Amino acid sequence: MFSRHLRSAALVASLLTLTGCGLFNTKPNVEEPPVVIEDTEEPITIDEPAVEEPPVMACEPVVIEKEAACPAPVACPTIISGAVTKEGDIAIIGRIEYVDVMSIDMRKKARIDTGAETTSIDASNIVEFERDGRKWVQFTVTDRSSDDMSEVKAPVVRTVRIKQHGVDNVRRQVVELDLRMGTLRETVEVTLADRERFDYPILIGRNFLRGRAVVDVSQKYMTLANGMDNTNEEEVEAPQEVIEQEAPAKQAQGQ
C-alpha cells in the first residue's frame, strides 16, 4: 500500500515537471509600456525657395492741400464820370452824346452803339473822284438844327457792301474823320451812310470807343458841362444793318 502511494506521488511530480511548474510560478499578466527607441540621426533640412517679403514702409503723412490763393487783381484803368478825363483814364459816357466833326466845325447828336464796329455819319450828295492817282470822295453834311450844309472831301480808305432786307445791296465809302466827344478826340474810320430816317445823324461805333470810354445806358449827354440837354426827343433806331467789307479802294500804280 505504501508503494502504491509512492507511485501516485511520482506521477504527480512528473506532471508538474511537464507543465513547467506553471502552477507555482504564475505571475500576473501585466502589459508593459512599449519601448520607444529615440532617433539619434540629425534631422534632414529641406531648402525651401526664399520668399522676399515686402519692405516695411513707414506711413507717409497725409498732406491736405490748401486752397489756391486768389490771383492778384489786375489793375484796370480808372473810370471817372463826366467830360473831364486824364491821360490813360476811361470816361463814362451816355447812350446819346454830342460829337464835333472837327474838319467842318459842326456839332451833331450821336447815338452810341457798342454793337457796331465802325462809326457812321449821315452824308448826302456823295461823288467819287480821283486825285493824285487816288480815289477820293466829296459829300455833304447837313446841320439839322440850322439846315447849314458843309462839304467834305477825303480820300477813300475802303468800301463796304450793305445788305438790307427788301432793298438792293448798296456800296458805301469809308473815310477818316477827326471826331471829338467832350475831351475824347480821335481820327477814326467813318462810313458814309444815308441816316436821314434816323433821329441821330452820327452813330459812334467801337472803333471810337475802344480803350477810351464805357457806356452808361441810363444816362445821356454826360460829356456836356452840366450833363443835361433840354431837347425832348424820341429815340428811334432801325435794325442794325449788315455790313460786308470789300477790298480797299484801288490806287494808281506808284502810289
Structure description:
With 255 residues, the chain is mostly beta strands. The chain has a domain at 79-226 and 240-245: Acid Proteases (Cathepsin D, subunit A, domain 1). It has helices at 2-18, 206-209; strands at 79-81, 90-94, 96-101, 106-112, 119-122, 124-131, 134-142, 149-155, 158-164, 167-181, 184-193, 202-204, 213-216, 242-245. The strands form three sheets. Strands 3-4-12-5-11-10 form a six-stranded mixed barrel. Strands 1-2-13 form a three-stranded parallel sheet, with no helix packed on it. Strands 6-7-8 form a three-stranded antiparallel sheet, with no helix packed on it. Strand 9 (158-164) and strand 10 (167-181) form a beta hairpin. The chain is rod-shaped and about 195 Å long. The termini are far apart. Residues 81-87 and 250-255 have low confidence and may be disordered.
In terms of topology, how is this protein built?
Blueprint (H helix, E strand, L loop, with lengths): L1 H17 L60 E3 L8 E5 L1 E6 L4 E7 L6 E4 L1 E8 L2 E9 L6 E7 L2 E7 L2 E15 L2 E10 L8 E3 L1 H4 L3 E4 L25 E4 L10
Parallel strand pairs: 1-2, 2-13, 4-12, 5-11
Antiparallel strand pairs: 3-4, 3-10, 5-12, 6-7, 7-8, 9-10, 9-14, 10-11
Give a short summary of the structure.
The chain is 8% helix and 36% strand.
The CATH architecture classification of the domain at 79-226 and 240-245 is Beta Barrel
CATH superfamily of the domain at 79-226 and 240-245: Acid Proteases
Number of helices: 2
**What's the CATH class of the domain at 79-226 and 240-245, please?**
Mainly Beta
Q: What does the main sheet amount to? A: 6 strands, mixed, barrel
First-to-last CA distance: 188 Å
Helix content: under 10%
**Total beta strand runs:** 14
In percent, how much strand structure appears in the residues?
35-45%
